[in-house]
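Pasting as-is:
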Amino acid sequence: QVQLVESGGGSVQAGGSLRLSCAASGYITSNYCMAWFRQAPGKAREGVAAINGDGSTKYADSVKGRFTISKDNAKKTLFLQMNSLKPEDAAMYSCAANARCYTASLSSLAYAYWGQGTQVSVSS
């Protein structure tokens, strides 16, 4: 089993930055695919950024150039650096992981393990 715990959410003004972290525990290796998803009230869950075992990344068009996904394999921690935040970035952000993957995917169907989420609020 794999457990994921997010942290780093908070409230910022538009244009600000936040860094989210996702600490993994249990049987997880550097070969895992991991990703960040977000869900705003009344909206569907959206894949934001993903990273596979060899470090290849994928981003949603809405965050390209502003968000950066990375991971520290030694610390089993996934990060999401969010810069130039916009009000439309406000949502509950969750991390996800899956051992069986080949490419970084923004589909929620590709992930078996999920964290509880951390809230991000952006004021205009």
